[in-house]
Amino acid sequence: PIFVCDGDDDCGDASDEEKCSAPTCGQHEFHCNDSECIPALWSCDGDPDCKDKSDESMERCSRRTEPQKPRCLVSEFQCGSGECVHLNWKCDGDPDCKDKSDEANCPLLTCRPDEFQCGDGSCIHGTKQCNKVHDCPDYSDEAGCVNVTKCDGPKKFRCKNGECIDSSKVCDNVKDCKDWSDEPVECGLNECADNNGGCSHICKDQRIGYECDCPSGYKLLDKKTCGDIDECENPDACSQICINYKGDYKCECYEGYEMDPASKTCKAVGKSPYLLFTNRHEIRRIHLLKSEYTQVVPTLKNAVALDVDVSTNKMFWCDLYHQKIYSAYINKASDSSQQVTLIDSLHSPEGLAVDWVHKNIYWTDSGNKSISVATGDGRKRKMLITTELNEPRAIAVDPHQGFMYWSDWGGQAKIEKAGMNGVDRQILVSEHIEGPNGITLDLSNRRLYWVDSKLHLLSSVDFNGDNRKVLLSSHHHLGHPFALTVFEDRVYWTDLEDEAIYSANRLTGHDVAKVAEDLNNPLDLVVFHEQRQPKGPDTCNMGTLPNGGCEYLCLKAPQITDHSPKYTCACPDGMELGPDMRRCAISNTTTTTPTTVATTTTPSTTTTTTTTTTTTTSATTTLPPTAKTTTPAPPQTTRSGRITEHPRTPAATSTETTSLSSTSQKSTSTHTPLLAAVAPNSIQKESNANLSHRVPILATVVIGLLCTGGYLVWRNWRRKNTKSMNFDNPVYRKTTEDDDDEIHIGRQSESIGHVYPAVSDEMQKKRGERGVAL
Predict the structure, then answer these.
(1) 690-735 tens-digit pLDDT
(2) Closest by Cα among 506, 510, 429 to 467
(3) Which domains does the chain have, with CATH numbers?
């Protein structure tokens, strides 16, 4: 009866769906003429969703002056409460909308007759029910089962029909098993007496038959022959290094680590490790050994991504509110005057990674769909990857091998890798992944770890994308994981739903522990210890030429083979490497602006006008600090070909300039007394003629400048009086037409997420007076 009137044709002739009462639609649903229920937002959207197309009927939709514009992308589903979630999250058994409309009106999943239906609707094979193994995610397959009598151990004998009798009743000339399998013809026969039963090592005679066995450190290969056990084939056998011996194995540690005699695990040598993490408004520190909890950076606006350079004791962070990247020495970071602005004019920087060997920084920007690199002082920068990125999130680098790794949760979620110079791009993980948030690298053991906030998983793969392993699957401990890091034998992660930091064994996923709780939106986190950033040679400064001889950026190249280059040079956006592959030249795609230069020759009476074509990357005009630039101006190039670097500004400086691509040069006209004495009348006539031609041109130029200035003033006034903020959510993108006061970021905004308060008019005014562009 549960299959009758469930909306599915189970009989094949649809007879189980006949004579069914019309379903009652919900508050946010539209009732089709054929009794089907669909979300109300789908009505009159230009796409028929009812089977009878009644949601797009002329009678209903003609009443509207214009069709309702969809607010979500084609690849997204619009919730009844206004959010946009991935389309493949609809009807997946996990509610993602606030009103759970993505799980409404979903067809009931029916299992085959030989399958068992779990409590969450999924199906498993019928033989897996009551097999003492939890095969259903909700463990419903083992609920209500009667434990079968165990028949294990030397004192028990299992008959062939499944009965269990005492082993003393075997071969006692009494048929205790109903199938008489306890009294076979082998009773009383000692097979081990003849050639050790064919066993290579140990033969054990039993009441019925015999079995071969092996000494410690060996295993049976073919039920008779013993072979050495390679314990090192098990990746969890040792913490770091495993050495196999015949019949035994030994664990050792990498340089910089020591074996703990108590736990037999490798412990890092050096100072006490501690965690640094962001919670939007602060950066805090937790000592892993002392359990001390302190504040490092106070009063931040919206700090999300975080990384460190252990060798210089520096920390770097991204602020989504200011759309900038900052740095500071950790012991001075609490002083705002010591916080330096490295990169500005960003969109939505969500991931950050420090190359501690070559002193560069890498970041992802989900706003302009890019991955960029800059020098550690922020003076030189370049976008490395700008194609086939949907929602780039976290990023991590391996400066020794020259690879960077990043997660992308958009459309087709995936984890990718590429050289730190942007070449050799490839996909590592693209299957069974939906919401990859944080990623981290275990350089010692060459594995990548990530958390999936949609599937509630903690997983790892090697650096080639092979040997994938799920360490932990838990809605409780992985409700909404955001970031993670690895140190020694533990993996640490932040969870927005529980507002806590957890840890677990990085090899098995066992021994889950709560490191800290009640943290108020913990986001990114890193471990500060020298072994997290092993030292290596700076290949860009190993030779006689500084910066590898590169005019602009020197980037580590991926070490694919022994013959791979150690580094390559790179140029700023809009420029490319010249023939020597070191110096930069104007890109062929750069626009050329004709510039007219008027010159007057003194010995002659003829005034000549020479037209030259000047290629400019940026001719700047400094305006009052009223508008914030959305795209950084590329470095300027002088006539000599030198590149002007991006200036570094302290965090306290908020004045910004607007660069206009305009070039103006004044033409000068020189009249000598000699020319006036020789031909005064002709010169006067020529001057009058030239003046009559120049007056309209000058008037046109003046009018154009006035219009341009008026437009800039109007645009600045409009920006100052407009409240807006765009942020691409790591889980879903929320439309803000119905909520101007705040933006909620998270899977379920009631329990998790980041709330961005709207900027008040008074704050806008104050920022405008200080020259800060909102």
Answers:
(1) 555 566 777 888 888 888 888 787 777 665 554 444 444 444 343 3
(2) 429
(3) 270-535 (2.120.10.30)
